[in-house]
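Handoff note, outgoing to incoming analyst
You'll be picking up this chain. Sequence as last confirmed:
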Amino acid sequence: MFERKFGPNGPVVSGLGIGAMSFTNFYGQTSEAASHAVLDAAVEAGVSHIDTANVYGAGLSETVIGAWLAARGADARARVHIATKAGISRDPETGARCFDNTAAHLAAELDKSLKRLQIETVDHFYVHRRDPAVPIEEVTEALAGLVKAGKTRSIGFSEIAPSSLRRAAAVHPIAAVQSEYSLWTRFPELGLVQACAELGTALVAFSPVGRSMLTDHPIPRERIPDCVLLPDNPRFQEPNLTANLAISDGFRRLAGEMGLPAAGLAIAWLMAQGEHVIAIPGTRSTEHLAELLTGAERRLTPAEIARIEQVLPIGWAHGDRYSQDQWVGPERYS
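Most recent structure output, in case you need it:
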């Protein structure tokens, strides 16, 4: 298992973590028992980082993890590094999604997360989305206060620009920034990968297997309407979907030639992008977890990386990674 330092002053964690959005029904039906089985198998394999958020299933993901920790005892807590997020909210009058980065909101939401997780301190706390109305320096000061209060050991942000990261790091060490990063979403290479390396910040990559597109079994067309995000995602709409499936078929063939599941090869590629990169794929099954784990143990040669990038060159994916509505929140940069 590859290991990574979690921030400039942080602990060492597994290079492959678990993204716990899948512990809800976001990508398909699951259960608490299935999620606990994934956690058991992951920890047994050396996975130590678990990444969740207060909005995943309206707190369900955190509740599932909390139940697992309570059932497994103090030893389980000692073996895992837990991160959660807050900052996405709902307008009380319209119900529309909005962002709240105020100190009071973040503190209150972290308290709720700690209760659901059944722990006193999280290892890491992110601002899930930036509210542009609140200066990031002010937000970082509020997060630093949560560190001083003993409610989190480190702080970070999700989906921010390199310039924002540098502004925040000037106030307090930023242990991690979370961003989508994979063979089909490579925009972090336009500055974020480099800024994180410069500052000693971990780059935590979500959707590292392209929401299933970089696996041996992409989500079937007939299941896409039942997934929360995918029906409105341009890459899963026609004609983009057919084009993306056809191109990624070449990656699946290459993975077979290289003796890895496609998901494992996608993880191995990501692990080769920097000693500060951590992948957090989600999964609802121990079988898929086993595929992912193969990539956390494979060190690719420069020649192998070149073969992969010949099959999936930068910019190969058809369609934007988000719809217009989904783009509200993430910071764009170039």
